[in-house]
Each structure stands twice: as C-alpha cells, then as structure tokens.
Amino acid sequence: MASHIVGYPRMGPKRELKFALESFWDGKSSAEDLEKVAADLRVSIWKQMADAGIKYIPSNTFAYYDQVLDTTAMLGAVPPRYNWSGDEIGFDTYFSMARGNASVPAMEMTKWFDTNYHFIVPELGPDVKFSYASHKAVNEYKEAKAIGVDTIPVLIGPVTYLLLSKPAKGVEKAFPILSLLDKILPIYKEVISELKAAGASWIQFDEPTLVMDLESHQFEAFTKAYAELESTLSGLEVLVETYFADIPGDAFKTLTSLKGVTAFGFDLVRGTKTLDLIKSGYPSGKYLFAGVVDGRNIWANDLDASLITLKSLEGIVGTDKLVVSTSCSLLHTAVDLVNEPKLDTEIKSWLAFAAQKVVEVNALAKALTGQKDEAFFSANAAAQASRKCSPRVTNEAVQKAAAALKGSDHRRATDVSTRLDAQQKKLNLPILPTTTIGSFPQTIELRRVRREYKAKKVSEEEYVKSIKEEIKKVVELQEELDIDVLVHGEPERNDMVEYFGEQLSGFAFTANGWVQSYGSRCVKPPIIYGDVSRPKPMTVFWSTAAQSMTKRPMKGMLTGPVTILNWSFVRNDQPRFETCYQIALAIKDEVEDLEKAGITVIQIDEAALREGLPLRKAEHAFYLDWAVHSFRITNVGVQDTTQIHTHMCYSNFNDIIQSIIDMDADVITIENSRSDEKLLSVFREGVKYGAGIGPGVYDIHSPRIPSTEEIADRINKMLAVLETNILWVNPDCGLKTRKYAEVKPALQNMVAACKLLRTQLASSK
C-alpha cells in the first residue's frame, strides 16, 4: 500500500524562509543567500518524507511567494508594466509582480479558495505572449533526484490556472479566459517533456476548481485540455488532485473520463459525499488517492475510523491501486509538534501537525498491508477517547447562553441612517473623514518588549510603560497628520486573532505553530479545543489609555467572531456555527464594556467573513445567515451614538454585498485598491448602500508610496458612485507589515488628497 502527501509547509520549522525573504527584500542579503536557505529547506522536507516511508513525495510545491505566481512565471504571463525582458524570470520580476516596486503597483492578491492562504491573481488577455519562462518545476525535480528522492512534480492544472485568472486592465470583463487554453498548453507540453527527459515517472496536476460550481463549457475545457496533453503525457502516471470540498457528480464524471489520466485524488475529510460517488462507480484500473488525513486542521486523525474507510475503498479499487493521502496540501497546518515543549500535555495528545500527519499517512498505508503498528493505533485511540470525555472541553453555562440565542435575529433597535445622524452630532466629523484600519508598524524594539515580557524578563509595570509610550507616539503621529478618527496602533498585539484567543477560555496556543498566509507573512492560529467565554475585559485598559491621550475619537479595536473562527484551528466535534455563536457572545461582552468606558467608536473586524464562504452556492445562504448573525450579536446592545465599524480585506465581496449590508454596521472599511477597484462596480450596477463606507485608497501590502494625485483620483472614482456624506477615506488594511518610512508619507498624501477634495466639494456648492 502506497502513501502520498499533496504538499508540505514551506516556511520551515523556525520560519527560516520568512526571515530569508525579508532580509533579501531589505537588501541585507543576496539572491544566492535566499536560494541557499530555500534549497536547504526543500532538501530537509524531501528527506523527512522519504525517511517516514512516503512513496509519492511532491516537488515544485515550494514557492517563494505562492504557487499560482510560480505558474504565471512558468507561462511568462508577466503584465507589461513590469518591463520584463523575456528571459528566465528572476527575483526582480517575480517579486515586483507580488509586491510592486517603486514605480508600479503589485498584482491583485486574493484568498486561495476558502483558506487564509493568498495567491497573486494572473492578469490575462488576448494579447498575452506566453512563453516558457521559469524552469523551476524541472529544476526542483532534478534537485530532489540528485539526493536520491524521486518525487512527483506538481503543477497547477491548466484549467484551474485560467479559472483563477482575471482579464487584465483594459481587457473586456467578458473576455473568455478559457479561450487562452490553446496558448498555454504548448508550454505545459514543454514542461512535461522536460520532466520526462529528467526521469519523472509521475506528474500531479492540481485542479481544485473541479469542486466548485462549474458550467458545461468549463467542463469541456478540462476534457479538451487533457485530450490535448494526452500524447505528451504518454509514459507517465498522471494524477489529477482535487481538494477542499465534495466533488459534484458532473465534475466527478468529467474528471474520471479525462484522457491520459491514471489517478484521481479526493478530499475525503471535507468531501465525505464523494465516497458515495466512488462507491457508485469508479473507473477500473485507475489509482485512487484517498485524502483521509486532514490537511486543513491540526487534530490527530481517528486512525481506526480512517482504516475502516480505506478498507471499503480497497474493496472497490484493489490493493495495488489505493494510495493513502492527505486531504490537501499540509501548507495549511503548522509544521511540527516537536517544537511545542510547553504545550499542555493532554491537549498535545489530541493534535497532529504536518510532520505528525506524514507519520499518520504512512501508518495507515502500512496497516492496510498487514503491518499495523498496534502501539501507535492504541495511543491514537486513547487520545481520541480522552478528548471526547475531557471536562475542559465543555462549559454548560456557555452552551446554555448560545442555545438561548435562537429565536432572535439580534438587530439594533433603529435604522442605520438614524444612528449615523446621532453619531455625527456626537462626533462632529468633517466630510470624507479619514481613519486607518488599526495596526501601525511593529518595530524591532516593540517586538523585543513583548517578547521579553512574555519571557518574564521585564516586569508588568515596565511593559505597560513601554506600550503606553508606543501608543503615545502613534497618537501624536496621527494628530500631526490630521487624521480624524484615531487608532492606538495595537502595539500590545502580535496577531489580531492570537491576542484575543489568549484571553478567551477554550483556546490553546503554540509557541511555533506558524502557518504561511502569503509571501513572508505567517500567522499562528489559536487552537479552539473547547467552549468559549470571556473571563474578563480584554482591550478596555489599552483603549481608555489611548483615548485619554487625545480629544479626537479613538477606535476600540476588536476582532469579530467569524474572523476569530476562520483564522483559528477550530474544534471538529461540533458545528462551526455553534463555536462562532459562543465567540460572538464573548465579543459582545467586550463591546459593551468598551462603551461603558467611554469609547464611542468600536471597530469589530470581520476580515475573514468572505473567506469562510463555502465553495458551492447551495451552501452559501446557511453560512452567511449564521456568520452575519454572529456579527450582529456582538453589537446589538449598544447606544445609537456608539458607532460600530467593521473591516474586510482581500476577497471578492461583490457576490455577498447584500449580506454585508445585512451586517448592519455603521461604517465598513473594505479593501479596494489592490483589486483594481472592482468593489466599486457593484455600486455602479445600482446597489444602494446607506451606511458609512471606506473603500481602501491605497495598497498597504506593497512598499510603494502612492502620490496625492493618485489617491485623489481614487476618491473621485468613489464619489462617482457613493454619496459624499457616507464616504470614508482610509488605506486598504492595517499598517503592521510596513515601515514608518513608508507609512508616514503615504498617510500624509492620503490626508492631503482628502483635504484637496473637501475644498473642491465646498467650492462647487
């Protein structure tokens, strides 16, 4: 029985790639230094999987930014603004596409399906001249082979690549992207031919768009693509991998009929209904890569249950054609539990990070061949039982409070226009009020203070003094810049979700459980293992301290329940919405305490609400109902004069705009600039929005500083579709990842643009 891993985390157990990338971007190290760190990590990963007994080990899953951008580089699909010379794509062009540079902005970034991972969206059109411009897939295969590891090279499938793309600027929105299939397939053929020549016997195409709602012409594109590739693929075993959801029946039929394909991979964790399709008719002689080990969460696999599933599949496809696999890439999990010596022993026994999941996959494969490790399976069964009956998981009071929520939709008593009038009388803000999203740059000194406080190297008194000094600097800077509604900069927080999770019951934390979000950006998701409640106030002290430093409104900054849920590793023993309602009640307590403490503007970020939208339309309504309801629960009890803000970023919001309106926030700030202002199109199409709204005027994920004129132009585009009295002016997102040398001039230009337009609007009356 063979074993397979779809993909593996690439940052390294100690975030080695993150630090190497940032050092390179800052000009402190060379391209050779970066390449060496990356090569060492790749070799380590391949050897680890080989030593664990994995037969089918992936290569070309290691990206310096993301795998879709790698494919864009492979196809030479570089937008003209980057002045690419046409040679093999190097770091300058690659990172300019990802991050922008001093003269041109980055490409759009959005979420990878329903995960917190991001990818750079390809910009395509009829005039793109595709060419084989990055030999990374072949080079990595050869690199692994040189150390004695024969890998499966992994490519984003041609149809998924096109379906994830968008028309380039100036190209009609209705441009049929799939019409480019004939132009990219010759490059795929070149790559396949080179891999065959290098000795590859397998190749993996990731086609996760097959789990989505597709139309007939899109299914036809899959059939056409693999028919065209069939002769080139001859002599190879070909795996088409799907993940993240059940595969629909029509997609299953299309997939299993593809010419030249000898193996199919399915997510059997999130796609349990796919089992019925397999049992009702699986093509004879084809390999089945059964994704029974969860690649999206950190709970130990129920090995006994997985073994039952695998044995039933073995009876369908045969022992020699069944391969035990992960449900998707392990990119979405933390790296290794070995790096967590301080994690609670009982909770640790319930978990499996990427390294442990590799072991689980191999243990299941061996068990199917009669080599079951009885001690390993016994320990796993004991851990499963421990988790089910542990008293630390259940809080009866919390469950009763959540159950009592049924029967109310939790709406504020008055409509938003009435509330905005009351708030304006209290806040007295100018037209086009300016604000920022929350965080300010996290300096080396600030990180040192937090680190030393956690290590008990400085006293609480010293820590509070340092954080207050940092808040004072941020407040004074905003007043100097003449920003209207201030933030305290969040200097006490390393991560917006981790910070709240540390103060809520039912959460556990890791020391090194980092997961890549995009580029060098890593997050450390909390683990929600039990019922959630708030033992005491979490932000009131810092918010009131910040408000005491200024007469301008100071936002209280909270993370919303849906975002805490979607950016955590969530318990899998109860429905996600039940956990979300528990978090909502905890945030509600905090909102009401902030209001009592005199905070009149409270932001409840829901950056990840769109991210959690199921991949299939039939499941949207149920998710949006409980997600939006959870947000409303948090602020249903506040006064009309308390202004509730929310923030969303880096997703496509147009298809859920009615649900965003239904959240009933007083003001929403929302990412807009990096996505070519496509958010504004929904208002051009006639959607009426009566609450305050701040579409971002510049991209904070790029070091580029926008000019006053550029920002003014963006605001004018907003004024063409939005009423002056509801428009706010703000960046796309928080400023944590930027340097003050970038933040200060960018905000200066933002405020200057705002003042220019205020003057123009006043003179036009």
TrEMBL record:
Per the UniProt entry, the signal peptide is: none
**Could you tell me the keywords of this UniProt record?**
Amino-acid biosynthesis, Metal-binding, Methionine biosynthesis, Methyltransferase, Transferase, Zinc
> Has UniProt tagged this entry with the keyword Zinc?
yes
Q: Which pathway does it operate in?
A: Amino-acid biosynthesis; L-methionine biosynthesis via de novo pathway; L-methionine from L-homocysteine (MetE route): step 1/1
Please describe what this protein does.
Catalyzes the transfer of a methyl group from 5-methyltetrahydrofolate to homocysteine resulting in methionine formation.
Catalyzed reactions? 5-methyltetrahydropteroyltri-L-glutamate + L-homocysteine = tetrahydropteroyltri-L-glutamate + L-methionine
Enzyme active site: H701 (proton donor)
Paste the cofactor note: Binds 2 Zn(2+) ions per subunit.
Every Cobalamin-independent methionine synthase MetE N-terminal domain range: 3-315
Know the name of this protein? 5-methyltetrahydropteroyltriglutamate--homocysteine S-methyltransferase
Species assigned in the record:
Olea europaea subsp. europaea
**InterPro entries listed in its UniProt record:** Cbl-indep_Met_Synth_N (IPR013215), Cobalamin-indep_Met_synthase (IPR006276), Met_Synth_C/arc (IPR002629), UROD/MetE-like_sf (IPR038071)
Q: Which PANTHER family match?
A: 5-METHYLTETRAHYDROPTEROYLTRIGLUTAMATE--HOMOCYSTEINE METHYLTRANSFERASE
GO terms of molecular function: 5-methyltetrahydropteroyltriglutamate-homocysteine S-methyltransferase activity; methionine synthase activity; zinc ion binding
EC number from the UniProt entry? 2.1.1.14
HAMAP family given for it? Answer: Meth_synth
Transmembrane intervals: none
Q: Which family does the similarity line name?
A: Belongs to the vitamin-B12 independent methionine synthase family.
Mind listing the GO biological process terms from this record? methylation
Give the required cofactors.
Answer: Zn(2+)
Cobalamin-independent methionine synthase MetE C-terminal/archaeal domain location, by residue? Answer: 432-755
Question: Which positions bind Zn(2+) 2?
Answer: D662
Binding of Zn(2+) 1 occurs at H647, C649, E671, C733
Q: Which residues bind L-methionine?
A: I437, G438, S439, E490, D605
Note whether NADP occurs among the keywords: no
Please list the residues that bind 5-methyltetrahydropteroyltri-L-glutamate.
Answer: K18, N116, R521, C522, W567
